[in-house]
Structure formats: C-alpha cells, structure tokens
C-alpha cells in the first residue's frame, strides 16, 4: 500500500515491488472468499430492503441493524422459491456467496427464500405511523394549502448534495424571481435528525419564508429511515408555515412525506411548490387580450344597437313621410282624374248636344230643300204649262197666219 | 382589490369583468369603467408576480 507520509500532487515513482491493479486485487479477494468453507452457511437471516427487479432477476438487500448484503435471485430460480421476497419481510435466504470481481462486491446468489414474518423495521415503521395517526397528524384536513405564489422558499437539505442543486434549479426554472433560503442539514448519519428538525423549526419562525421544502436524493432504504422518525415528522406537521417534502426516488415514501402539507417525488420535482412564471405571464397576457376583445365587443354591440335604432328611426320617419306624400299624391291624382273626367264628360255632353243641334238643323235644311224643290217643281211645271200654252197660241197664230197667207195667195 | 388579495381572486374578478362585457348588457360608460378596473387589476397582478430577485441565501 502507498506510503502517505509525504503528500504531493506531483506524479511520483513507486518505491515498491508489491504493486497490483484493482483487477488483480479483486481476483485475489474472490479466490479467498470462494474457497473458504467457513463462509458456507445454510441460511442467512435478515430483512428485505430495496427490493427491485432488473432483467428478469430479483435484487434486494438483506439487512439487519447496520449490516447489509446484496442478494440476487436469478430469473430461472424465481419459481422454486418457498416465498417471494418483498419489502418489509423478515426472511432466511439460502445460497452461495459470490464475489463480483469487476466491482469488488459480495452477493448471495439465492437458491431459496423462507418467509420469517414481518421485518423488524416494518414493525417500527408501523408503530411510528400509528403514533402519528393517533395524534391526527396524517389527517387530510390538517393539511394546509401551499401559497399560490411564495416570495421566499426555505429549503432544508444537504448543502453540498445533488439534491440541493436539483431543487434550486427546479425552483428557479419554474419561477426565477423566487428567493431561496437554504438551511444546510445532514440528511443521514447521527446529526441528521437534529439538523433537519432545527432547519424546519428555524424556517417556521422566519416570517419571510412562505413555504418550507425538505428534500434529499435517493439512497438505500435504510438511509431514508430518518424521515420516518416521529420527532422529525412532528416538527414538520406542527409548522405554521406550509411544508413540502420530497425524499428519495419516485417509489420511495416516508412518513415525513405523509405528514407534510405537500409531497413531491424527488428533488427535481421541488419546483412544484412554485407556479410556473411563464404560465402566469401567459395567463396575464391572455386575460389582457380577452379583456380588450370583450370591451371592444361590448362597445361594438352598443354602437351597433345605437346604429340600428338610429337607422330604424330614420327609416320610420322617412317611410312615414313617404306614405304621407304618397297618400297626397294619390289624392291629388284622383282629384285630377276626376276633374279631367268631368271636363271630358262636359265636352262629350257639349259635343253630343252640338251634334244633336246639327242633326236637327240638317233635318230642317232637308225639309227646306224638299220644300224648295217642291216649289221649284211646281213653278217649273207652271212655267212649262205656261210655255206650252204660249207655244199653242203661237202655233195657232202661226196657223192662222199661214192660213191667211194661203188664203191670200189663193186669192 | 389590494396587494394582499390572492392572485386567484384577482383572476376571478377579471374573468367576471370579461363575462359582463361579453354579455353586452352594459352601457358604454359601464364598459369603460369595467375595462379600467380590469386593466388596474392586471397591472397589480403583474407587480405581484415580481416577488423577489431570485436570490439564493445560505443560512
């Protein structure tokens, strides 16, 4: 092993012949472990923790107090187990100890699992939960609403953890203007309980903190057990300030989650305690747009109604005046027609009378002509008679003359 | 509406104003007043949204 008496950052040559690679060391450890009959026990007893399935195989940690060892049940062996291992189960496992050289880790390759009852921790967990429930700390009606827009968030977490970075990023991603106060607290180990409790309590007394957030990242189940401790749960439950707790991974659930006013899944979900600023801005601008549109529509409706009323009134007035004029016109036309008809009738009457008179006059004329003709005829006849008489006389004279002359001649 | 009025109440009031305006049964004067009130609440809202400076304070 390296001599650490003199510390330097400079690259140095090793003054030793006994230098091996990690692979060699792991191989050597593997040889030691697998060849030792005293490590070959029939059963190993413990509690199942961090149970999970991967690629068809079952994995879990067999834990007892602070000790733990990884166990794996290969898929083809799952059917032959006496009991299916599960969280909160106290079990005896039988199998071969195997050393996984690449990672330098020991596992039990499980042949069989026997159910030995509830795990010790599951009993403790159940007792703790019962105590909290008996005091009413798990009741839904106790839970406060988170503030709709906290100005300041009090974050209780380990200051140098990924959880802190994730939670701060998540909060500021959603609401960049929110202030974040951070209380550094160990989240596992002997000081953790006290530090977590004092972090929550001090933020509860800080009037500027609007919501208290307690968070830590994932880890083995037994490292999360501190969040099932009743003193911490009581402090979280008793705050006046609303609390939000997010411990471990999505499927981890602790009593601290249950007493908190709000549970979020993981540190990256811590942002859920603040609204999304972008959504609020969008809502504001949508409201502004809708307000303008609604106002415009109200004004338009009113103006349209006024315009319609005005148009109707105008049309009413014009139409009534037109009706009057039309009536007057019709009346005037009637009178004019009547007058014309009357005149025509008069003319007709006059003409008829004139015609009658002319007819009478003509008849008179005809009568006169008749009379005149009769007279003329009479006169002509008389004249002819007279003429005839004259001629007869003349002829008689002439005869007489002739006769005288003839007599004379004879003589 | 004051600075301490919850955001949701302010949003509700603006929604109510919008509904009143959309119903169209308000006079021009009332419409103008409602719009002014809505605008004021929106301005208050926007001020409310600027809660802080996004500071990270280690304690």
Describe the model.
The complex is a heterodimer of chains A (411) and B (59). With 411 residues, chain A is an alpha/beta fold. Chain A has 7 helices and 10 strands. In chain A, the strands form 2 sheets. Chain A has a 5-stranded mixed beta barrel. The termini of chain A are far apart. Chain B is mostly helical. Helix content of chain B is 66%, strand content 5%.
Helix fraction of chain A, binned, reads 40-55%
CATH superfamily of the domain at 125-275 in chain A: Response regulator
Largest interface in this structure: A-B, 36 and 36 residues
Radius of gyration of chain A: 69 Å
Number of helices of chain A: 7
* Average of pLDDT of chain A: 90
Biggest sheet layout of chain B: none
Decide which structural class fits the backbone of chain A. Answer: alpha/beta
Task: Tell me what portion of residues of chain A adopts beta-strand conformation.
Answer: 15-25%
Distance between the termini of chain A: 235 Å
Low-confidence runs of at least 5 consecutive residues of chain B = none
Shape of chain A: rod-shaped
Element pattern of chain A in H and E = HEEEEEHEHEHEHEHEH
Order of helices and strands of chain B: HHE
Structural class category of chain B: mainly alpha
Number of strands of chain A: 10
**Any idea how many domains of chain B?**
1
| Strand adjacency order, main sheet of chain A | 1-2-3-5-4
Q: What's the short version?
A:
The complex is a heterodimer of chains A (411) and B (59). By secondary structure, chain A is α/β, with parallel strands linked by helices.
């Amino acid at each position: 092993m390296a001599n650490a008496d003199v510390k330097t950052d400079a690259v140095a040559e090793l003054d030793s012949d006994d230098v091996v690679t990690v692979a060699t060391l792991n191989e050597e450890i593997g040889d030691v472990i697998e060849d030792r009959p005293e490590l070959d026990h029939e059963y190993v007893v413990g509690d199942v923790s961090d149970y999970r399935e991967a690629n068809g195989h079952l994995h879990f940690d067999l834990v007892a107090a602070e000790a733990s060892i990884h166990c794996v049940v290969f898929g083809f062996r799952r059917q032959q187990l006496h009991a299916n291992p599960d969280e909160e189960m106290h079990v005896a496992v039988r199998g071969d100890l195997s050393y996984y050289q690449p990672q330098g880790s020991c596992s039990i390759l499980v042949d069989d699992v026997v159910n030995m009852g509830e795990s010790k921790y599951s009993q403790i967990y159940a007792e703790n939960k019962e105590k909290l429930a008996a005091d009413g700390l798990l009741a839904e009606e106790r839970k406060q609403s988170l503030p709709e827009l906290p100005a300041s968030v009090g974050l209780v977490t380990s200051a140098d953890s990924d959880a802190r970075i994730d939670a701060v990023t998540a909060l500021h991603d959603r609401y960049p203007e929110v202030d974040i106060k951070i209380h550094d607290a160990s989240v596992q180990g002997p000081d953790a309980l006290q530090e977590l409790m004092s972090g929550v309590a001090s933020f509860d007394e800080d009037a500027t903190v609007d919501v208290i957030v307690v968070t830590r990242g994932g880890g083995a189940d037994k490292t999360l057990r501190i969040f099932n401790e009743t003193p911490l749960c009581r402090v979280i439950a008793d705050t006046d300030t609303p609390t939000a707790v997010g411990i471990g991974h999505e499927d981890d659930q602790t009593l601290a989650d249950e007493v908190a006013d709000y549970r979020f899944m993981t540190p990256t979900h811590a942002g859920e305690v603040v609204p999304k600023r972008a959504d609020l801005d969008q809502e504001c601008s949508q409201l502004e747009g809708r307000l303008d549109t609604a106002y415009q529509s109200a004004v338009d409706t009113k103006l349209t109604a006024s315009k319609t009323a005005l148009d109707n009134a105008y049309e009413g007035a014009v139409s009534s005046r037109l009706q009057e004029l039309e009536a007057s016109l019709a009346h005037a036309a009637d009178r004019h027609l009547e007058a014309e008809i009357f005149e025509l009738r008069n003319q007709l009457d006059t003409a008829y009378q004139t015609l009658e008179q002319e007819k009478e006059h003509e008849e008179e004329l005809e009568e006169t002509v008749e009379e005149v003709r009769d007279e003329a005829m009479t006169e002509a006849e008389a004249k002819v008679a007279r003429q005839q008489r004259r001629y007869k006389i003349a002829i008689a004279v002439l005869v007489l003359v002739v006769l005288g002359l003839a007599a004379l001649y004879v003589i | 509406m004051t600075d301490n009025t919850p955001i949701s109440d302010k949003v509700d009031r603006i929604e109510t104003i919008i509904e009143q305006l959309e119903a169209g049964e308000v006079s021009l004067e009332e419409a103008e007043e409602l719009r002014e009130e809505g605008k004021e609440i929106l301005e208050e809202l926007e001020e409310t949204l600027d809660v802080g400076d996004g500071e990270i304070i280690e304690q």
